[in-house]
């Protein structure tokens, strides 16, 4: 579904990604972890074309992301992305947040978009809040709306970049619960997160990054069994 082959990227003279290779198969839940500044956000943003890269190749469902002929807007509509900050439109109601891109990007009719958006809002447990505005919801609720909004586009895969790291502790679990339920439903997911409980529960692969390199790319069981690099061990000893 997602195939990164020897991806390298520079910001000016600074090499932020070096020869990153990773494969995400349909139904995989891949957790990407590693120290701050190791390139996790940059890597995940290259997958849906939010960040260009200079070397290597990325294929999403057979479409080459780096190919100039690729319609990136179309690609992004098929790969959902959820960020650390929820990025809902503050001046739009929850219902409007859920339907805008469906109508504008996918060309869906309004009633169809509303039906789909409300179904996903229900799925994340927030159907009572359709007519509220983002500021009226808690951070955890806003992040669940952001997930519902991404799902409303019928993505082939979902990318998450530290979706719980800006949340108050008591709201983290409600967002993780939604992600766990998506994973169990077979959604293909690539998640940058330090939530190792989530990784243990649903990840089937773990990618550990350090200084722009994919240092480990192994099964969850291998990763937690301890067959890992000194750098990964040092990182885990600090967060577990
Ligand atoms: P992570 O998500 O693992 O914390 P990032 O992908 O955000 O790491 O950043 C990796 C490195 O690239 C960091 O050293 C960061 O300072 C640098 N970086 C990120 N974005 C930019 C940018 N737009 N211009 C220059 N350097 C950047
Ligand atoms: Mg980051």
Automatic annotation (TrEMBL):
SMART domains: AAA. It is a peripheral membrane protein. SUPFAM superfamilies: P-loop containing nucleoside triphosphate hydrolases (SSF52540). One of its GO terms (cellular component) is plasma membrane. Pfam families: ABC_tran. One of its GO terms (molecular function) is ABC-type amino acid transporter activity. Keywords: Amino-acid transport, ATP-binding, Cell membrane, Membrane, Nucleotide-binding, Transport. It is found in: Cell inner membrane. It comes from the Bacteria. Residues 2-236 form the ABC transporter domain. Belongs to the ABC transporter superfamily. This is Amino acid ABC transporter ATP-binding protein. It comes from Moraxella caviae.
């Amino acid at each position: 579904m997602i195939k990164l082959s020897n991806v390298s990227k520079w910001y000016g003279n600074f090499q932020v990604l070096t020869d990153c290779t990773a494969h995400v198969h349909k139904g995989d839940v891949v957790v990407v972890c590693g120290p701050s500044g190791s390139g996790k956000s940059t890597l995940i943003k290259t997958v849906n074309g939010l960040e260009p890269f200079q070397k290597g190749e990325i294929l999403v469902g057979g479409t080459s992301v780096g190919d100039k002929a690729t319609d990136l807007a179309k690609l992004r509509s098929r790969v959902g992305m959820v960020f650390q900050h929820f990025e809902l439109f503050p001046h739009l109601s929850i219902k409007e947040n859920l339907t805008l891109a469906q109508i504008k990007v996918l060309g869906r009719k309004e009633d169809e978009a509303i039906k789909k958006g409300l179904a996903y809002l229900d799925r994340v447990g927030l159907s009572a809040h359709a007519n509220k505005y983002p500021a009226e919801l808690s951070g955890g609720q806003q992040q669940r709306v952001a997930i519902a909004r991404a799902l409303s586009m019928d993505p082939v895969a979902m990318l998450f970049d530290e979706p719980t790291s800006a949340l108050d502790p008591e709201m983290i679990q409600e967002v993780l619960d939604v992600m766990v339920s998506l994973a169990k439903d077979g959604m293909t997911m690539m998640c940058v997160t330090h939530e190792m409980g989530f990784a243990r529960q649903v990840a089937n692969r773990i990618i550990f990054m350090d200084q722009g390199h994919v240092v480990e790319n192994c099964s969850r069981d291998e990763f937690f069994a301890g067959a890992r690099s000194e750098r990964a061990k040092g990182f885990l000893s600090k967060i577990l």
